[in-house]
Write a structure and sequence with these properties.
This protein is mainly alpha-helical and 53 residues long. The chain contains three helices and no strands. It has one domain.
């Protein structure tokens, strides 16, 4: 899952309005039991004003 996290973070750097990347990161962190990071990326994705999926 570490590779998936790296790829999704790179995706966010290139496409900061990609809600799907934030959602996916949130899910990965939730599966890993990292509730703080899961909540962070969930809220970050939800706060995007002009989302690109």
């Amino acid at each position: 899952m570490d590779d998936a996290i790296k790829i999704l973070k790179l995706n966010i750097e290139d496409y900061p309005n990609c809600v799907t990347a934030y959602d996916s990161l949130s899910r990965i962190y939730k599966i890993q039991g990292n509730k703080q990071m899961a909540l962070f990326y969930n809220q970050k994705g939800a706060s995007i004003k002009n989302p690109a999926y």
